[in-house]
Write a structure and sequence with these properties.
The protein is an alpha/beta fold. The protein has helices at 68-76, 89-98, 131-136, 206-224, 247-252, 261-275, 299-332, 362-366, 373-376, 394-399, 414-417, 445-453; strands at 8-9, 44-49, 78-84, 141-147, 173-177, 189-191, 194-196, 230-235, 339-345, 418-424, 434-436, 440-441, 460-461, 464-465, 489-494, 497-502, 505-509. Strands 2, 3, 4, 5, 6, 7, 8, 9, 10, 11 and 12 form an 11-stranded mixed β-sheet that branches. Strands 1-13-14 form a 3-stranded mixed β-sheet, with no helix packed on it. Strands 15-16-17 form a 3-stranded antiparallel β-sheet, with no helix packed on it. α4 (206-224) runs parallel beside α7.
């Protein structure tokens, strides 16, 4: 299939000419029509996305959360240290899977906060076809597992419509949940567009289930269509609250955070310098005055807050272990070298939505009810279990964004928008264990995949003229650490927190603080 025919999707297949003879024995065999496939050499593509993980959390970026599979991918591929998201979950996912800026696809904020204003209705327009649809119409198999959080809330019932569900957005298969968070022990799940029974197995954990489903899908797809590449999107509920992890993982971190968030920031920065993911002369940004110094806390708060952080770290390690199982399956199938893996260590900065004391019931904070440490410390051993919906305090969120300022929701500062990302494609580039320091953004991944697959950006999809992709391909960075920075300008905005990057400079405005949910900020003119 020549390149130009792929600019209009779906691709028109050749029409068989009618056979003139009555008796098949008198006819010649009609020419074969080959099934639709991508261009030769197109890789399998695996996107792995974690939730609410800041730049300074994973060990692959010097953080205290042990994530050996992320480290291994960085060691056998590329580690990007200036990769950016939008500072919030739904907008990042919409930008990732469309290749367009989040306002252009209606996702100014999370789906639950949609309005009728332009850029804020949470409904992707047809002139912005998603990457999965582009790949499917070029001969890929496509599947999504895990968190979606892109369907308008008024379309999430069994009455539909279903065009903004995953199976309406180019994915042939979906298994996961539609909202922003879910109980990891007893989640509400869908298979395709059908709700399924809540798991009742006492040993069940959603991250394990998602890895199992992903592995089973890839094995079956390869058994049936080994010549057809796949695009798999694996978006864990982890490490978004509630922070749920098996007890043995939590116990393994016991005492590892007793030194507190101020000391952890200093320790993390030193490791980051040794790894080279920040400059050798980097300095810590100051802790906001509204966040308490660790040494000012009483003993009960220190004990409670340390346990909440131990549980988060355990959640991260447990999730990375499931990623390792998926990667091992690729090796077992002997397709790892032909697979472009993108492992995104967060869809925004670490979450400060646990407010000042953390919480054992995150829905309390959503209703502007602050739980207090004095009331929670007596239930410290329940943290991470099915009895809690826990989240750590904002001080840990700031620490998990080391060395940058602020947190999730703060699109104005790198603490909200800079995330770790590692990439590997053995048959696609020779670089191993190298850093890439150019500015990149989540909207760059869609054009990167298209170029890697030899597929042009479509101008027409399903009869609708397409808006151009907003991202820049990153392929030149694969084997050239000194390649020029293609993505030279990028805006950011979430909840009035806003900024712009241009050729190494940034201008920023912080409009509201995420841990003060009752105060949404004053007039924009006062910023």
């Amino acid at each position: 299939m020549s390149h130009e025919y792929r600019s209009t999707l779906p691709i028109v297949t050749p029409t068989q000419q009618p056979v003139a003879t009555v008796d098949v024995r008198d006819s010649t065999t009609p020419p074969r029509i080959d099934p639709l496939r991508p261009p030769k050499g197109a890789p399998n593509v695996l996107f792995i996305l974690l939730d609410d993980m800041g730049f300074g959390a994973p060990s692959a970026y010097g953080g205290p959360c042990e994530m050996p599979n992320a480290e291994a991918l960085a060691g056998s591929g590329l580690r990007f240290n200036r990769f950016h998201t939008t500072a919030l979950c739904s907008p990042t996912r919409a930008a990732l899977l469309s290749g367009r800026n989040h306002h252009a696809v209606g996702m100014a904020a999370i789906t639950e906060l949609a309005t009728s204003y332009p850029g804020s209705n949470s409904a992707r327009p047809p002139q912005a076809a998603p990457l999965a649809e582009m790949l499917r119409l070029n001969g890929y198999n496509t599947a999504a597992f895990g968190k979606w959080h892109q369907t308008p809330v008024w379309e999430t019932s069994q009455a539909g419509p279903f065009e903004h569900w995953p199976t309406g957005e180019g994915f042939e298969k979906f298994y996961g949940f539609l909202g922003g968070e879910v109980d990891q022990w007893a989640p509400t799940l869908y298979a395709g567009t059908e709700p399924i029974d809540t798991p009742r197995d006492p040993d069940y954990h959603l991250s394990v289930d998602l890895a199992d489903r992903t592995i089973s899908y890839i094995r079956e797809q390869q058994a049936m269509m080994p010549d057809k590449p796949f695009f798999v999107y694996l978006a864990f509920g982890a490490t978004h609250a509630p922070h749920h992890a098996p007890k043995e993982y939590i116990d393994a971190y016991r005492g590892k955070f007793d030194q507190g968030w101020d000391a952890v920031r200093e320790e993390t920065l030193e490791r980051q310098k040794k790894l080279g993911v920040v400059p050798a002369d980097a300095e810590l940004t100051p802790r906001p005055e509204s966040l308490a110094a660790w040494d000012s806390l009483d003993d009960d708060r220190k004990r409670l807050f340390a346990r909440l952080m131990e549980t988060y770290a355990a959640f991260a390690t447990h999730t990375d272990e499931q990623v390792g199982r998926v990667l091992a399956a690729l090796d077992d199938l002997d397709i790892a070298d032909d697979t472009l893996i993108v492992y995104m260590l967060g869809d925004n900065g670490a979450s400060a939505e646990g407010n000042m004391d953390g919480t054992l019931n995150e829905y309390a904070s959503y209703n502007v009810i602050q739980e207090h440490a004095d009331d929670m410390v007596g239930r410290i051993d329940d943290i991470g279990s099915h009895l809690t919906f826990n989240h750590y305090p904002a001080g840990w969120a700031h620490a998990m964004d080391t060395p940058y300022q602020w947190t999730k929701q703060c699109a104005s500062h790198w603490g909200g928008t800079r995330n770790g990302m590692v990439m590997r494609w053995p048959n696609g580039f020779a670089a191993r264990g190298e850093e890439r320091t150019q500015f990149t953004h989540v909207i760059d991944l869609a054009p990167t995949v298209l170029r890697a697959a030899g597929i042009p950006e479509p101008t027409m999809v399903n009869g609708v003229a397409q808006m151009p992709l907003h991202g820049q391909p990153m392929n030149a960075l694969f084997d050239d650490a000194d390649a020029p920075e293609e993505h030279s300008t990028q805006y950011f905005e979430i909840f009035g927190n806003r900024g712009i990057y241009h050729e190494g400079w940034s201008a920023v405005t912080l409009h509201q603080v995420p841990w003060d949910i009752a105060n949404p900020g004053g007039p924009f003119a006062d910023d």
